[in-house]
Amino acid sequence: MSETSPNANSNPFIKNWSLDAVLKSIPLPEISASSSPLAFLHIIERLKTTPREGWKRFDIINGESIADHMYRMSIITMLCPPEENINKDRCVKLALIHDMAEALVGDLTPPDNVPKEEKYRRELETMNYICEQLLKPMSPTIAEEFMGLWTEYETGETKEAIFVKDVDRFELVCQCIEYEKKYNAKKDLKEFLHVRRGIKNEFVKKWAEDALREREAFWAAAGVESVVEN
To answer: What is the DSSP-derived secondary structure letter of residue 8?
Structure first.
């Protein structure tokens, strides 16, 4: 997410993040490497309870979690038109895994001033831990699949990864408009909408254009001007 409000991120490990420190802060049971998925499931449970930080900066109460965002992304990927010849089943997996590292890294946003290289390093270390320490004892094949999906999304070169990145941006546009409606035009979240410029697939661009027309009509009916830059 991208925003400018200065409110502090709730993640206490932003400046001095280390995987060991985060793991020590989590009350995990003593589970040795085995075929049990429990340790993995306890880790990703945090995706259900970790908020998307950008909304908190605008005083959005009870905003979406990381898991909320990834769930709707997964549904959106299933709406891909068949004629696009995109593997939707793979896209669902990419959507569900692309932010998995945030379970331990948190949702870092531009005002946190964490360089992209450092953000990637933290997420890569986390995914290596999840795959090598938690999933590989269960199944090397599963571990390899998860790591491969995460890497594919990060690399962003396959048509599936490009589409899911588009969906990531489009889902943010939708959520932005929904929060503006929820707060009856008292919160202008237009600065999030710049993400639409990164959308590459023409059919997703049209989805985003439809969303912006809906937003324009909403603000016009509210009698308030909120101009979105082209």
So the answer is: P
Q: Write out the two tokens for 19.
A: 């995987």
Give φ, ψ of 88 to 5 degrees. -65, -35
Q: Which residues contact 177 (CB under 8 A, 6 or more apart)?
A: 211, 214, 215, 218
Structural domains for the chain: 19-27+35-222 (1.10.3210.10)
Q: Which residues pair with 65 in a beta bridge?
A: 51
Phi-psi region of 106 (alpha: psi -120 to 50; beta: other; left: phi over 0): left
Q: What is the spatial distance between Cα 154 and Cα 162, in angstroms, rounded to a whole number?
A: 10
Give residue for tokens 């360089």.
115
Q: What's the pTM?
A: 0.91
- The residue with tokens 């830059």 is 229
Residue-wise pLDDT tens digits, 116-155 = 999 999 999 999 999 999 999 999 999 999 999 999 999 9
Q: How far apart are CA 221 and CA 212, in angstroms?
A: 14
Decide if 210 contacts 199 (C-beta within 8 A): no
Angle CA(208)–CA(213)–CA(214) in degrees, nearest 5?
95
